Amino acid sequence: MTELQVALATISGGAVGFALGLLGGGGSILAVPLLLYVVGIHDVHVVIGSTAMAVAVNAYFNLLPHAKAGHVRWKPAIWFAVFGVMGTTVGSVVGKLVPSKDILFLFAILMLVMAYKMARKRPPQSPNKDASVQPKRIKSVRFVRLIISAVTVGLLSGFFGIGGGFLIVPALMFSADLTMVEAVGTSLFSVGSFGLTTAVSYSLSGLVHWGIVVPFILGGAIGGIAGTMIAARFGKQKRTLNNIFSGVVAVVAVYMFVMSLHALYPHIA
């Protein structure tokens, strides 16, 4: 671990934090390629374990102001986290067994899907907030949807070492009757729980690089503050900024896709 890598880890964390602060989500998807191709950590499993810890700390840190503002609905937050952690535990175990080349290939595909979803992102409509007019059958169906969504997102989070917030927010809105603001705040509890579960699993296998995690988190905190300040000034241009970021994610995804293909099929020129 060189001083240059520490500096690059801090800068990379700053970039991820800046994107999160500016756009409110999605930035953590860049953590894996940044640590791989910028910082130069070549063990994919170490990168996943390390980014998972950084994602967890960042999520819990950002959960506090949302909780103080009353934007966290604790009942769905806890239920989603409980069932999601089950999926995360399985996902992290499976992820450690999958060869690095295959994980990179699948991760590139995930990034392409996310870039597409971000480019087409529209403000979802909040469901009916009046719980008193909802039949018990509807509430039961919503709870089943919450369980399925939590386990599925948890599996992806554990496998790839991502927060999964871009999937958790819409899942909470339509399974727990949350507004957009509530879903964003509530999702952070699950993002942190999923990241912590993945990080613990990888740490027990010696796959967390603490020399990378600490500067990455510090850089992320600084970048997050800067991104939040700029977002407050350029809120009206958020759609444009979101499209630019989705383009960046797409470019990085294509690069990872090509690199993973070369790794899987080295005979291809």
SSE blueprint and pairings:
Blueprint: H1 3-23, H2 31-39, H3 44-68, H4 74-97, H5 100-119, H6 136-160, H7 165-175, H8 180-204, H9 210-233, H10 238-264
Please identify the structural class as seen in this structure.
mainly alpha
Strand content: under 5%
- Helix % is over 70%
Mean pLDDT metric = 84
> Number of helix segments?
10
Could you list the spans in which at least 5 consecutive residues all have pLDDT below 50? none
Number of strands: 0
Written as H for each helix and E for each strand, in order along the chain, the element string is HHHHHHHHHH
The count of domains is: 1
Our Rg estimate from Cα atoms comes to 18 Å
Overall shape: it is globular
Sheet with the most strands, sense and barrel status = none
Oligomeric nature of the chains: single chain
What separation lies between the terminal Cα atoms? 32 Å
Structural write-up:
The protein has 269 residues and is mainly α. It has one domain (3-264). Helix content is 78%, strand content 0%. The protein is built from 10 helices and no strands. It has helices at 3-23, 31-39, 44-68, 74-97, 100-119, 136-160, 165-175, 180-204, 210-233, 238-264. Helix 2 (31-39) crosses helix 3 (44-68), helix 3 (44-68) packs across helix 9 (210-233) and helix 6 (136-160) runs antiparallel to helix 7. The protein is globular and about 55 Å long. The mean pLDDT is 84. One of its GO terms (cellular component) is plasma membrane. It comes from Alicyclobacillus mengziensis. The chain crosses the membrane at residues 7-38, 44-65, 77-97, 103-119, 146-173, 207-232, 244-265. Belongs to the 4-toluene sulfonate uptake permease (TSUP) (TC 2.A.102) family. This is Probable membrane transporter protein.
